Amino acid sequence: MFNKGLLLACALALLSACDSSTSGKPAPVEKTVAPAPAETPAPKREDPAVLAKRYEGRELTVLDVSEVQLDGAATLSISFSAPLDAKQDFATKVHLVDTVKGKLDGAWELSDNQMELRLRHLEPQRKLVLTVDKGLLAVNGKQLDSESITRLETRDMQPTIGFASRGSLLPTRLAEGLPVIALNVDKVDVEFFRVKPDMLSTFLANWGRNSSLYYYQSKETLDMAELVYSGRFDLNPARNTRETVLLPIAGIKPLQAPGVYLAVMRASGTYDYSQPATLFTLSDIGVSAHRYRDRIDVFAQALEGGKALSGVNLEIHDEKGKLLAQATSDGKGHAQLPITPKADTLIATQGVHTTLLRLNTAALDLAEFDITGPQANPLQFFIFGPRDLYRPGETVLLNGLLRDQDGKPVKAQPVSVEVRRPDEQVSRKFVWEADSNGLYQYQLQLATEAPTGRWQLLLDLGGGRKQVYEFLVEDFLPERLALELKGSNTPLSPDEDARIQVNGRYLYGAPAAGNRLSGQAYVRPLREAVPALPGYQFGSVTETDLNQDLELDEVTLDQAGKAVVDIESRWAEARSPLQLTVQASLQESGGRPITRRLEQPIWPAERLPGLRGLFEGEETDSDGPVEFEFLVADRDGNKLAADALKVRLVRERRDYYWNYSQSDGWSYAYNEKFLTQNEETISVKAGSTAKLSFQVEWGPYRVEVEDPQTGLVSSERFWAGYRAQDNAEGGAVRPDQVKLALDKPSYTDGATAKVTVTPPAAGSGYLMIGSSDGPLWWQEIDVPAEGKTFDVQLDKAWARHDLYISALVIRPGERKANATPKRAVGVLHLPLDRAERKLALSLQAPEKNAPETAFDSESKGRQRRWQCAQAGACVVVGGGRGHPQHHRFQNPRPVRQPVRAQGLWCRSTGHLRPVDRGRPRPPGQPGVRW
User: Fold this and answer.
1) 402 with 485, same domain?
2) Which of 229, 321, 553, 656 could share a disulfide with 922, CB 3.0–4.6 Å?
3) Start and end of every Alpha-2-macroglobulin bait region domain (predicted)?
4) Which pLDDT score is estimated for 925?
5) What mean pLDDT value characterizes the chain?
């Protein structure tokens, strides 16, 4: 099966090279502790008067003292409850002392939000004492009312060295250096090997995703390459600071020839079992490719400017280097090549420039985009029946409609069907013929010894694609028992045992006397505890150990078919509402059970505080006010009066830091802190709610509301930052994502769609409409940073429901701006309007009817509620109440299945990932998704 994705491999990361081996002096290197990317500028400080008004009345306290990493340096961070007055002299109010060396000198930095003080370049493994004097001034005029003293010990820092990326493509005109991440390592020795062209595919297959060259593999690996350059480089990073430095290669002639290079590095004077290593190549060709079932569509663009490149020679090789296919890009930079499972590497060349793309690597992850759905086919076979569960010996009733990829009727044709048993053996084959109305009907007789499990019908609709319909075969009997479970009409208290009343009887009326009852009980948090108040959250998200699974003792029903099941409370300490779910199974005399469920709420008090965020989903835009609504409610949904509710905004901060090991390369860890950034007291009147707004920045938060009358706390988490759940819901633009938006929810055939493309930075690229069978339309685009709207005329021939708009925008590199080319991708489904096909059916039939007797029914159909439907056939199917799945069987929906959004089925690969100057960032930083 093809993986989902978009084969978008734009090799755009900045990697660099090295120094002259003939020189006696180590080559100088360029330090690149890169500033924040242009697309995520640091926020400016707000007007002090605005801040003073926003935080009016808030007391100033020290919330937290931690060691964090800031731009690679160990930094002391002091968090406060309110913004500080930036005009005061912090050195006279804040003192840091080393217990061995005495007072530490350094400049205190105030963060942009003015709520953190920072001191960089801490020494490792030192015991420190921090003192914040009384009288430190906040922007709102409040002062620290008492001295704060904190003791801490800084982390250890071992010297480390490693490449910033596993592999990269260097734009030749911007190739300044190969990025290396260094910590307390002054000099390195680097050797550069050029991979032999005839060994390229084999080398790549053997190398994989390695980030180090191990001693045991060095001979085999280096036999496929030749040493072209070696040298020593002075790094000289700042002390105790993890810095990214560039090893210069721009002026080294042996490294300017086109090809693939392997760089192997070691700290000077050291010899380890493994050495950091990375691949890189030099080229100005950027390649994006869309791989489909039997072909690959390739688009070639210039890394400098993003314009389409014509005349690029494209070759596909297998893992042994054998040429499988060849083509040349046209005037739009496009070429189409056949592809087979043996395809391993795509090599793009133009003049002296070479770019390679491995086709067998992991697909580009497009999980942020909604591209899921069933596989699209030119023909669709819609199958329906009264149920999907049968017994051995029964007859499976099948009905079918043959439709095209737009759900329209097509000329009936014979359909070859293969029936497969659960063990994948073919049970039978038959050719399914339609009647004069185009309706396919078939009765599949199951043998009495038919194996149980999931059966399949494989329908051959041509083109080498088969559609699958599944049904279950189980050895069951129609239900003969009725089981009723009854709990308390009101919520239980946590320390109260649950008492469940059981009533069992046979469907013909007799009590289920002497039948055995077994079951399980499940306890889970009940977040939406008041059905009359949808959206409001109750209970604390930080309360742990609330989930419980219990096995109930078996009981026997009395002569009246009744019993009582007592469940002892094991959740007496719970401070949040819970849901007790009882699942009971009543067994017939032969041992066959029927199962029913009962849900019993548990409340820790007669009233609960509740809250809801006034935004969509669990994420909101960062750097903006976030509004919540608060109330106190009873079980009936009545909004009660409450005084002095305590509301808190808690920042769930994670301080990330990097570690390096020879086996795993760079990895990260974090320390987690919960910082109460705001606390207010509110009151609500009976029948109403209260609202509060909070100023937030990028990252995770928790809002809590506490009712002082009961001491109960309810809370809700949210993330301030990029909206990831949809490409066009108005969220912020991510640094690696193009935001796409449509002007309508769906489009009729031949309509014009207005597509708004908003990139993270201005650039060039292309806008494309494609399907699982390949691209249908595309054009080159130039997009400013603020975005641009493009008119796309929809062809009437595009009557299918796997249409997706995709955009690829390349930010051109600029040597003066110290910025490398960087690509951003966007994908969005293009829905077609088929509402006029919806038919509203009404069915009139008697409520009851004797078994095995006929009855009359009348059905009527209307389109768009005012237009009577044309004459047509109506098929009515029904299922018996005794069927064990009658309450779970999902009725098929013919109005949706043929025209619903279908998945984008392409395979996505990429060999060299674009990074911002090769510098890794932990997932706690804005703009990076891990």
Assistant:
1) no
2) 656
3) 738-864
4) 28
5) 79
User: How many CA atoms lie within 13 Å of 59's alpha carbon, on the beta-carbon side?
Assistant: 10
Token pair for residue 84?
A: 């500080």
DSSP β-bridge partners for residue 649: 678, 703
pLDDT at 703: 96
Please report whether residue 691 resides in a domain: yes
End position of a domain, from candidates 720, 751, 785: 720
Same domain, 518 and 586: yes
Q: Which strands, in side-by-side order, build the sheet including 334-338? A: 285-291, 295-302, 334-338
User: For the domain that residue 404 is a member of, what is the CATH number?
Assistant: 2.60.40.1930
Tokens 């350059």, located at residue: 229
Amino acid making up residue 868: C
What are 660's strand-pairing partners? 666
Euclidean distance between CA atoms 889 and 835, whole angstroms: 26
> What is the CA angle 672-677-682, rounded to 5?
135
For residue 879, is it within any domain?
Answer: no
Say how far apart CA 295 and CA 602 lie, in whole Å: 59
In a domain, 486, yes or no: yes
Is the pLDDT at 6 greater than 90? The verdict is: no
569 plus 668 within the same structural domain: no
The edge-to-edge listing of strands for the beta sheet with 395-404 is: 379-384, 395-404, 439-445
SS3 628: strand
Distance CA 524, CA 491 (A): 14
DSSP bridge pairs for 383: 400
CA distance 341 to 325: 13
Its domain, for residue 691, covers 608-720
The pLDDT score that the predictor gives to residue 578 is 97
Work out the angle between the directed axes of helices 215-222 and 200-207 (0-180°, nearest 10).
170
Q: How many other CB atoms sit within 10 Å of the CB of residue 680?
A: 13
- Which of 120, 387, 173, 43 minimizes the C-alpha distance to 821? 173
Whether 454 maps to a domain, the answer reads yes
Task: Let me know: does 185 contact 242? Beta carbons within 8 Å.
Answer: no
**Do 170 and 95 reside in the same domain of the chain?**
no
Report how far residue 338's alpha carbon sits from residue 182's, in angstroms, rounded to the nearest whole number: 44
Mean pLDDT, rounded, for 523-537: 94
CA atoms within 13 A of residue 236's CA, in its CB half-sphere: 8
Residues 526 and 582 reside in one and the same domain: yes
Residue 612, token pair as written in the block: 């809801």
Phi, psi of 768 (to 5 degrees): -140, 145
pLDDT at 276 over 50: yes
DSSP states of 501-566: EEEEEETTS-B-TT-EEEEEEEEEE-SS--TTSTT-EES-TT--S--EEEEEEEEE--TTSEEEEE
Q: Are 695 and 701 in contact (CB under 8 A)?
A: no
Are the beta carbons of 426 and 455 closer than 8 angstroms?
no
List Cβ neighbours of 301 (8 Å cut-off, separation of 6 or more): 10, 285, 286, 287, 288, 307, 308, 309, 333, 764, 765, 766, 810
- Give the residue from 282, 312, 347 where a domain finishes: 282
Q: Look up residue 776 and give its two tokens.
A: 């249908």
pLDDT, one tens digit per residue, over 282-313 is 788 888 777 777 788 888 888 776 678 899 99
For the chain, percent of residues with pLDDT exceeding 70: 77
> Closest Cα partner for 927 from 734, 653, 661?
734
Q: Which residues contact 660 (CB under 8 A, 6 or more apart)?
A: 160, 161, 162, 181, 183, 666, 667
- Which residues have a Cβ under 8 Å from the Cβ of 446 and sit 6 or more positions away? 390, 391, 392, 393, 394, 395, 396, 473
Contacts of residue 54, defined as CB under 8 A and 6 or more positions apart, other chains included, come to 695
Q: Please check whether residues 492 and 595 belong to one and the same domain.
A: yes
| Cα–Cα distance for residue pair 807/810, rounded to 1 Å | 10
Highest average pLDDT, of 32-46, 206-220, 810-824, 902-916, comes from 206-220
